Amino acid sequence: PVRGLLPGIARTILCELVPVREEALEEPVWRAADELFLTNAVAGVIPLIAVDGLAIGAGRPGPVTRDLADAVRARAG
Q: Residue 26 and residue 73: Cα distance in Å, rounded?
């Protein structure tokens, strides 16, 4: 596991829905990503559209993130 990650409702649900690999991402890796997101117990899945002013993918929430957010919301009830 990555140091500093906290267990949480949204993260737990997400780990039950899809295969998850947790690792620290260096800038070249996240800069090349099509989509990135965070999880939070209150907000669920939160799309990241930019980091330090640099756009992630197209600079807007992508379809995978939207689908995962919907699935987590539905499962959380």
A: 29
User: What's the rounded Cα separation, in Å, for the pair 73 and 77?
Assistant: 6
- pLDDT band (50, 70, 90) for residue 70: very high
What pTM was estimated for this model as a whole? 0.82
| 14 neighbors 72 (Cβ within 8 angstroms) | yes
Q: Is there a contact between 47 and 35 (Cβ–Cβ < 8 Å)?
A: yes
Q: Is 42 helix (H, G, I), strand (E, B) or coil?
A: coil
Choice between 16 and 6, residue whose per-residue pLDDT is larger: 16
Average pLDDT of the segment spanning 22-44: 89
In DSSP terms, 44 is beta-bridged to 40
- The answer to whether residues 38 and 4 touch, using CB atoms and an 8 Å cutoff, is no
Which residue is it, tokens 């947790």? 22
